[in-house]
Amino acid sequence: MTSLRSLRDPLLVAVSLVLLWQVMHMIAGDVAITAPVPTLEHLWTMVGQARFLPHLRETGLAFLQALAIASIGGVLIGVVLGGHKLSGEVSEPILVGLYSLPKVTLYPVILLLFGLGMPAKVAFGALHGILPIALFTMSAVRNVNRTYLRAGRAMRLTPAQTGWYILLPATLPEIFSGLRIGFSLTLLGTMLGELFASQRGLGFLLMTAIDLQDVKTILSIAVLISVFAVLANAALLAIDRRLHRGAAPEGPRR
Amino acid sequence: MKKATWIRTVILVGAVGALELACDTGAVPAAMVIAPSAMVLALIKTVQSDDFGSNVERTLSAVAVAMSLSIVGGFAAGFVLHAIPALRRAFNPFLAAYYAIPHFAFYPLLIVIFGLGQLPLIVLATLFAMVAMIVATMSGLDRVPRVLLRTARVHHLSLADEIWHIRLPAAAPHLLSGLKLAVSYSFIGVIGGEFIMSTGGIGHEIAFAYDNFDNARMYALILFVLLVVTSFNMAVYAWERRLMRRRSA
Q1: Rounded to 5 degrees, what angle do the CA atoms A128, A218, A122 make?
Q2: Looking at CA atoms only, how far is residue A221 from chain B in angstroms?
Q3: From the CB of residue B175, how many other CB atoms can be counted at a distance below 10 Å?
Q4: List of long-range contacts for B159-167, beta carbons under 8 Å, 24+ apart
Q5: How far does B195 lie from chain A, in Å, by closest CA?
Q6: CA A122/CA A108 separation, integer angstroms
Q7: In sequence order, which ranges of chain B are alpha helices (DSSP H)?
């Protein structure tokens, strides 16, 4: 599917990003930015150390729990609000309004409600992810083609069959797009939660590194998180495109 | 008023009333959430305090700079990428993955480079907000009808005239949604950065109040930020609605 040509240009940009990094290092020096190769070496030794793993596990666990809550909660909210017209109309502006608020400001409230530690991080991550997932699911359910449902009724499908054979395939592509955005935002929320008032996790390591002026560690962790985020997003995007292609066979080819 | 609007108002008023009741009866301890009425009173007191003005000015000026930079720069970058397809193909995967990166992970690095002040905050917020504008600009320009561009050529418009009279208005709906995102992301970038580490500004004040168990001041400041952002969003939304109505009429 992916030809060499379509990979070539992005690869060039990736290479130039690393070059830019090197040039910035040469201008600013080790105090501000460490060079790419030593940074990656540092990252490699850091990941190998035993004291690094608990932090990684803490962040990973917080992220996975937040993602699970955001996905399940978001899809459920979206299905209910999308299926029932009036409640959807009532709540959509509220959800959109909440979505565009800077949720960072609410973090102290979350901390007061959940206390310091894991639950607050999970709650904050889930808070970031749940709204886009709910909004996307809602519009997916609302836009199901009525003809399909009428066809299902004509064939006397049971509600379970209607869900499995009609609603699920019809809504899956758009719900998946929501999940992809929710994934990124949940990661952002979890990281934000760790940067402020936490005792463990990658965010905590970042904050300790600032206090120590340890640029190498800062860059290593930032690179680690970014690479994870970009790779996961690329995988999700590939699935997303596939689903959307399958969903609209008679649509315009792009 | 529509039925849905009615119900929504009732729900929102009911939620605030329920919170008020729960706080007043002590079902929710004041160490967690203070009553909405107390929040408003604290907000009035906070607005009158001496250092409030300078903090607000500091935050809002950083937001304004980041917002303008990202809107203007994002439009320019989007325009260039739209004009050169090869460049766009090369950058597309990065633009698609851009918001997957938790930008705040780079804030410590920006502090090391630019020092602890307004500059790293502005850079962070601009980096955060600009890509939304770039993407919105590109998808807006993609949808400019070809016939309009041909008309521009018939009228021998200069490039600047063509952008101003044809492309901008035709792409306006997409540009506006990019603008809304840029506004919201600038706020998130600046306040989030201030929150994590800074020497002043509203975000710093909220974190400071949190650290000192000064719940009244903390909730007052949070309420202030939410009010400012919501009124800004509503203004843009109203403007968008007016634009749409004029277009469809």
Answers
A1: 25
A2: 8
A3: 24
A4: B163/B79, B167/B141
A5: 8
A6: 14
A7: 3-25, 36-48, 52-83, 85-97, 107-114, 118-142, 146-154, 159-162, 168-196, 202-211, 215-248
Q: How confident is the model at residue A6 (pLDDT cuts 50, 70, 90)?
A: low
Spell out which residues of chain A touch residue B31, defining contact as CB-CB under 8 Å: 112
Condensed to tens digits (0 to 9), the pLDDT of residues B99-150 reads 777 777 788 778 878 888 889 999 999 998 999 899 889 888 888 888 888 8
What is the separation of C-alpha A242 from the centre of its chain, rounded to a whole number of angstroms? 19
Rounded CA gap, A181 and A162, in Å? 27
**Which residues, 6+ apart, have CB-to-CB distance to B3 below 8 Å?**
A86
Task: Give dist(CA A193, CA B104) in Å, integer.
Answer: 11
- B22 has a chain A CB within 8 A of its CB: no
The reply to whether B30 touches chain A by the CB within 8 Å rule is no
> Cβ A233–B222 below 8 Å, yes or no?
no
Main-chain phi, psi angles of A49, to 5 degrees: -75, 145
Residue ranges in A49-117 assigned as alpha helix (H): 53-83, 85-99, 107-114
Task: Find, in chain A, the residue whose alpha carbon is nearest to that of B31.
Answer: A112
Pair A43, A224: CB distance under 8 Å:
yes
Superfamily of structural domain A54-246? MetI-like (1.10.3720.10)
Rounded Cα distance between B215 and A112, Å, is 10
Tokens for B31? Answer: 């160490």
User: From the list B32, B108, B203, which residue is nearest A209 (CB)?
Assistant: B108
Size of interface A-B (CB pairs under 8 A): 148
User: Which architecture, in CATH terms, is B38-248?
Assistant: Orthogonal Bundle (1.10)
The whole-angstrom distance between B151's CA and the closest CA on chain A is 27
- CB distance from B4 to chain A under 8 Å? yes
Does any CB of chain A come closer than 8 Å to the CB of residue B93? yes
Chain centroid offset of residue A225 CA: 12
pLDDT in tens, B82-92: 888 888 887 87
Instruction: Please say whether the beta carbons of B113 and A32 come within 8 A.
Output: yes
Per-residue pLDDT tens digits of chain B, which is 249 residues long: 678 888 888 988 998 888 888 888 888 887 788 888 888 888 888 888 878 888 888 999 999 999 999 999 999 999 999 888 888 887 877 787 787 777 777 887 788 788 888 899 999 999 989 998 998 898 888 888 888 888 888 888 888 888 888 888 888 878 888 888 888 889 888 988 888 878 888 888 888 888 888 888 888 988 998 888 888 888 888 888 887 787 765
